[in-house]
Amino acid sequence: MSTGGRFNFDDGGSYCGGWDEGKAHGHGICTGPKGQGEYCGSWAHGFELLGVYTWPSGNTFQGTWAQGKRHGLGVENKGRWVYRGEWNQGFKGRYGLRESTGTSGKYEGTWNNGLQDGYGTETYSDGGKRPPAPPPPPRRCPRPLQPPLQKDMLFIWRCCIQAMEPWGEYWRVGLELEGPAPFQ
């Protein structure tokens, strides 16, 4: 059964909200030592779930959490930058938009472990753009792939890609037909 209450930590922080089996559960507010930093939102079995965290610096994160880390979708306001997008285990992840609050500078694209990585477009504060990076040069497979049978003819396929070709807004990889092989 869920209850509510207030708990004061030894370091001066506090939690006020729902409890279940001795853990924060439901809606609650947790403040850090001396009232610095605050999380206000939903809790599940002692972990943040969905809410707003405000650091002592004034930076904020509004979004979803998993196992104590930002995970899922969220918005981070940090200094003069705002990031809107996906989070993975506490890091900016997969896809997001980071833009300046005072200029037209921004980056929209893919992320990995909190860093810009892969496909994306960067716009500088003067309006200039850095387009997505060109694809890597073609690399051939070390040996032909095992060909499929088709109408009594054997075809030899080669890996033309790990080279990549444009396909809409994305890049794709595929196989290239090298030609028919003599039937054995």
TrEMBL record:
Residues 106-145 are annotated as: Disordered. Residues 106-115 have a biased composition (Polar residues). It is a peripheral membrane protein; Single-pass type IV membrane protein. It is found in: Cell membrane; Endomembrane system; Endoplasmic reticulum membrane. Its main location: membrane. Keywords: Cell membrane, Endoplasmic reticulum, Membrane, Repeat, Transmembrane, Transmembrane helix. GO terms for biological process: regulation of synaptic plasticity. GO terms for cellular component: endoplasmic reticulum membrane; junctional membrane complex; plasma membrane. Pfam families: MORN. Residues 131-145 have a biased composition (Pro residues). Belongs to the junctophilin family. This is Junctophilin-3. It comes from Gadus morhua (Atlantic cod).
